[in-house]
Amino acid sequence: MRLSARIKCFKYLVYAYVILISICGGAQLVIGAFLLWTHRQYSPIVKDQFWEPFAVLIVLGLISQLLCYLGWTSTSRKHRCYLGTFCAFLVGLIVILFLVSGWSVATKAHLITPAELAIESSFGEFLAKDSTTKDQTHIWNRLQRDFHCCGYNGIHDYKKVGVPWSCYDPVNSKVFNAGCMHVFVKSIEMNMIRVAVVAIASALIQSLGIFCVIQLTMLLRRPTIMLPNGDNHSIRVKRTREMTPLSAANISNPTPHSSTKPPIPLKPVATRVDPPVIKPSSH
User: What is the pTM of this model?
Assistant: First the structure.
């Protein structure tokens, strides 16, 4: 395959790869924004903790979109330096995605104790208010209504103040039996798992086309020469040597780099003789 055809083939492969990176970045943006928005609705219950992995996922999605612009521009211009920069940043992004995945799993494993303490403190503040059963906009009423839970550990937590309306199922008027602490902590843990899955899936998908970028960069490094028929062929660049005057010693004792063939003798050139000019005699 000619060099120009190989460059064209890998160029379109890199284009497809950039589109794939853009899709992955868009998925990170959408999923991260949704998880952050869902968490922020009830984040005061856990003292505004555990939102960092969602925000990092959004930032990595934005970085992916910027890298797509760099990759598309460098590929269209066939700029080898920009392609190398794109590949280096992409490798760094993939490494960061793997680290974020591990960080989310580690956060899930260590959030139970601080989350329990924060939820218990928030529930104590909720019980201390007199308008517990009347304030429909309170965050604990919204939490119990949306997560179908009641109290910190169950309905028995409302023995002294009465069961609020948000603990009842509006369909069959039954009381929710599950405690909100277990339900809410389980929801945060599942969101951490979602972040880890999205991060590692994006890292694996975005690592599929690195070979194409590296190959295109290597092909653009090879110099080409344009033939009369319009084809491009690669040539090797040799280091130029200084031209030294040819002497008799060099001809008799040729160096390993010089040609051993004797010089081609020049053909003798005959001397041009003009015919005599006869002038007419005057009478």
Answer: 0.71
